[in-house]
Amino acid sequence: SKIIDKVKEGFNRGLFELDIHGFNHVDYTNLTEQEQTKSLTDANAKLNLLFKTTSHVFIPPLNVYNNDTLKAMQKNGFNIISSADYSENAFDGGKNIFNASNISMNQSNGASSIFHIPETVSFGDYVNGTWIDEPNDNIIGNVTDNINKYGYAVITLHPQNFVKYENNTLKDIVDDSRIKKLSNLIDYLMSKDIHLYPFSRII
């Protein structure tokens, strides 16, 4: 309840939007179209129960999806998907990645379009059972390159990025140095007139 209340506070203050990461953390490519449709329906119903809102953005668990996912999204009124960049390339060679400088190409299907806005860099990565920080210089380089390429960049954050990690175990202790790292990153981006927006503002 403490976590839910804190999320409500941030959402009500307009600090972020709420998006769907699935009803359960499962590989959606192992589900049928009907199962994916029900999962997204259930997820939005739960979001509405807890926060009195629904979402049109889907961030698939494990960064994997298929054509049935897109069909299930359309049935539920979702119009934005965000997975990892490598998933987009595996799906269709990256051809559907939204490019803000060529909007007409990406709206060829009219209102039924699903905009592909993938993660371009992660604040930290889970490698061989260990969480590893991505240096801010690398993140800044990625953000700059992808803004030049697509008109935006997406940085993925996980709760695990901000807690102590000792002996391959996550501790229930906030890591102040990582909070400071994020603060420094945000300050730098804003100093370069790079604005922070939710997915819906990108399109």
Commentary on this structure:
The chain is built from 8 helices and 9 strands. By secondary structure, the protein is of the alpha/beta class. β1, α3 and β2 form a beta-alpha-beta unit.
Key features of this structure:
203 residues; alpha/beta; 3-stranded parallel sheet; two-stranded parallel sheet; 8 helices; 9 strands; globular
Short recap of the structure:
The protein has 203 residues and is an alpha/beta fold. Helix content is 42%, strand content 14%.
Topology of helices and strands:
Elements: H1 2-12, H2 33-51, E1 57-58, H3 67-75, E2 80-81, H4 85-92, H5 103-106, E3 115-116, E4 121-122, E5 124-127, E6 130-133, H6 136-150, E7 155-156, E8 163-166, E9 169-174, H7 176-191, H8 199-202
Parallel strand pairs: 1-2, 2-3, 4-7
Antiparallel strand pairs: 5-6, 8-9
